[in-house]
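Recap slide: Anoctamin, sequence and predicted structure.
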Amino acid sequence: MKAEIELSDFMQKWYIQAPFIIILFEVIAICVVRSVLAFMGIVKYRHKRDECYKAPILDSSYFSGGPTYLEV
């Protein structure tokens, strides 16, 4: 009889705790996904920034073979 009561108490506690555990896992999953997306955005921004601030190409061979109106 006592074993049935302990099992019953455990089941009642489990039914109460299960929704909270599920919500906790959902919140953790959302935090992880948002962190990954934020990191990807930072990497994308860094790549754009690095491309924009590259040194200009100063080699004259890069400009050879262009249209005649570009020649000075």
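The chain has one domain: 2-53.
The longest helix spans residues 2-52.
(End of recap.)
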